[in-house]
Specification:
This protein has 274 residues and is an alpha/beta fold. Helix content is 49%, strand content 14%.
């Protein structure tokens, strides 16, 4: 498959790091466009991001570090950019990030992703290919759908090259979002974020937190399987394969898999999609 990418989070233990290396080796065989690595607000998490990024880069694979607004200063971002640039890394994912509970507004120099994108462009010109986040079902903290669309356009106008969506299971939400931002003059590629369905309890928790809707019929079917993991996996593969087929049929420019540091489900989805 062309134009696929895979997202990891930094492992927190030596055992998790070994599992991620194994998953990465399996996924690298699919020749993805790149791997991305998420970025947390805590100092140790940031170090984990940097270490994971450099390990992937050292393996000769294309990697896109996430950079978040939360708790960052201009100086810290400047230093990160210089480090990545010095190692020949050319792609970034620039995000506002999730404000930790109890933190006032993020306590950093950047409040919104458009400010971060603008800063990266001012500091580094066109060195980096910058991707930003898109929310087909609208950001859970947006004031209105119209306001959320305008926020997205601001990020793109600040200098983003493309976008990756939050995961979703409503195909129509993606198609409508692309049409709506196109009507606002925004025509950057909008890559579809794909979350394989592996563990229903975990998925429900993620979805409630990030505002991604699990359609009622999917929730009900998943709940009906109880602890039958094989049935959850098979149903999940069917649902997500069909969604990906719909996305590719309308010309989605790529699929970005949220792997949760596991390879099996993403590999099987790609196999089914040819």
């Amino acid at each position: 498959m062309d134009n696929i990418s895979f997202e990891f989070f930094p492992p927190r233990t030596p055992e998790a790091a070994a599992k991620l290396r194994s998953a990465r080796a399996q996924l690298a065989a699919l020749k993805p466009e790149y791997f991305s690595v998420t970025f947390g607000a805590g100092g140790s998490t940031r170090e984990g991001t940097l270490n994971t990024v450099m390990e992937i880069h050292g393996e000769g694979l294309s990697v896109a570090p996430h950079i978040s607004c939360i708790g960052t200063s201009r100086d810290s971002v400047r230093a990160l950019l210089a480090g990545y640039r010095g190692h020949g890394i050319h792609r970034l994912v620039a995000l506002r990030g999730d404000v930790p509970s109890g933190a006032a507004g993020g306590a950093g120099d950047f409040r919104y992703a458009n400010e971060l994108v603008e800063f990266i462009r001012a500091e580094t010109g066109d060195w980096f290919e910058i991707e930003v986040a898109a929310y087909p079902e609208y950001h859970p903290q947006s004031r209105s759908p119209a306001d959320d669309l305008q926020s997205f356009v601001r990020k793109v106008n600040a200098g983003a090259d493309s976008a990756i969506t939050q995961y979703f299971y409503n195909f129509d939400a993606y198609a409508r979002f692309v049409d709506d931002v196109s009507a606002l003059g925004c025509t950057v590629p909008i890559v579809a974020g794909v979350m394989p369905i592996i563990n229903y309890t975990q998925l429900a928790r993620f979805s409630d937190a990030c505002g991604a809707e699990i359609p009622r019929w999917i929730r009900q079917r998943l709940e009906s399987f109880g602890d039958d993991r094989a049935s959850i996996r098979e149903f999940g593969l069917d649902v997500v394969t069909h969604l990906c087929e719909q996305l590719l049929a309308v010309g989605a420019p790529g699929l970005h898999f949220y792997t949760l540091n596991q390879a099996e489900a993403s590999i099987e989805l790609c196999r089914r999609l040819g």
